[in-house]
Fold:
Amino acid sequence: MIQCKRHLSGAALLICTALPGGAHAGTAVPAPVTLKTTTGKTVQPLQHTGKYGVVFLFIQHGCPISNATSPYYNKLCREFTPKGFKFYYVFVEHVSAKQAEQHAKAYQYACPALLDPQQKLVHLAKATITPEAAIFSPQGTRLYMGRVNNLFAALGIQRPHITSSDLRNALHDIASRLPVAHPVTTAVGCYIPLPLTGR
Amino acid sequence: MKQPFATLAAVLAASLLISCLCVKSSAAPRTPTFASDIAPIIYQNCASCHHAGQVAPFSLTSYQDVEQHAQTIAAATQIRYMPPWHVDNPGLFQNSRHLTAAQITLLKEWVKAGCPRGNMKLAPAAPHYNKAGWIMGTPDAVYVPSRSYQLAAAGSDVYRCFVIHTNYPTDRWVKSVEIRPGNYHVVHHIICYLDTSGAARKLEAATHDGQPGYISFGGPGFPAKGMLGGWAPGTQPMTMPHNVGILLPKGADIVMQVHYHKDGKQETDLSHVGLIFCKKPVDKKMLIMPLLQFNLNIPPNDPNYIATAQLKVPANVHLLSVFPHMHLLGHTMNVTCTLPSGKSFPLVTVPDWNFNWQGFYTYKKPLAVPAGSVLHLTASYNNTESNPFNPHNPPVMVHWGDQTTDEMCLCFITFTVDQQHLLQNTAYAPGQNTK
Structure:
């Protein structure tokens, strides 16, 4: 992509950036990440995306803001899966598959949940907070990173109503083949702890 | 002639050396460790809620627990979201969880240093908590709503009032009150009011959503006869001082207002209130005075609307506790007492009001306030879009009222009257109605 920048004409560069994966010149296509779902299925979520990409919501089962966000994220799963996106929850902590699956059932997850105890996806997306959402293109480019919406203005400060539906807006932009207007937003929630193996 | 100068030079050199050593020692502060610095803060101020089965979402009763949530702890304490203690009067109230600026800095520095353990042999023992039991002792009576409340998974917070009939044929005096949430995942706070008018029963009868109780945001929806205290995370049972009782009038209903925070899944709750009655005759009744300003006209886009109220104390009294109350536009509240001598002292200071964290603050020792003293209340309101709690978008003119979209300006103050001696039948109290 750097060569693309140096040698191609402006018109060619425009085409290059308009293509999925070319929007962020210099972003390396990530190596395959293989994870297990809470039901034991092995998946490569960045390799098998929807037509427009894949959406991850990084969560911790003990984070109240993560849990309070589930119903809204479930709605987005139901609404945008038929429109060409694949959705996942991602447990970023060291939690057993059984415990995670129980949690997924309790909160009626509308999409599969991945276990990421080594935080491979966390590092790839550069997530630091739960709940924090990331959208990757089918080519592996990160298109959005940040909050799901602005229901929580800060820790302990919950608005009466959502006034900015950031993840929904990003999904709309991508499905409309537009650049994401606000590709990075600041999430509010619980910091992601280091993985146990990293201590 | 040279010797005095030599002595002086030696003294100066020694002083310089000492000051250098001092500078050197203060320039290299010790790195805080869990064992010596962090465990005492966490165990004393956080663990009572942050342990298994309690209200907090995760435990903080070991190094591993604390290290795992270290960054969140540093962030939450930095903005004084945690521990939940929303008044700024160190040393004035019981069970204070106020962290000093130095403690907050220690937490931050510890996280910055990579959360070192230190010598764990020096660490205080992790706190041990007994399984659910009444903290105040076995209650004489336990009241619960008629049935469980079913809470939806998502949506706005709910303020539900449950009407509990006590059916006592005579007045009772209450010594201690302990309120216990039935479901720590969703119960945010509870306030118990008393009703002898039947108003709460009518409000419940007029509610047809198939659930017990009725919805009411600000207060209980009627002028309450009294209050039985409240619960918020970290609250200890309320026990009256010697010879003091809370009157539970005959036939009164307890109206338990529960603030529910939805947690993403369907939940049920059945909260309890336990009472211990006075076993000895009561000499003084706990009374409540509201210090309030009804005349609220908060214009849209005013970031700092000020409301004030004052009240002249007509008798010698002792103040027991305070309960500041505003709604969603409230920003600060400052209540002070000016004695007849002109001397003033704070009764409560709320630097950054949060409706979600309201409750009673009980003085360490009842405060003596002589007749003629004046209680002053000053509250500020932010009615702009910059206030994330603002229920109106765009902002509109807001007045006094019970609804989420209305405002209030009041501070309940519980007290006893010095001259009241029920045992001697020389009762004197403005507006009292004791037997």
User: Anything to note?
Assistant: DSSP finds six helices and 23 strands in chain B. The mean pLDDT of chain B is 89. The two ends of chain B are 92 Å apart (CA to CA). Residues 332 and 352 of chain B are 5 Å apart (CA to CA).
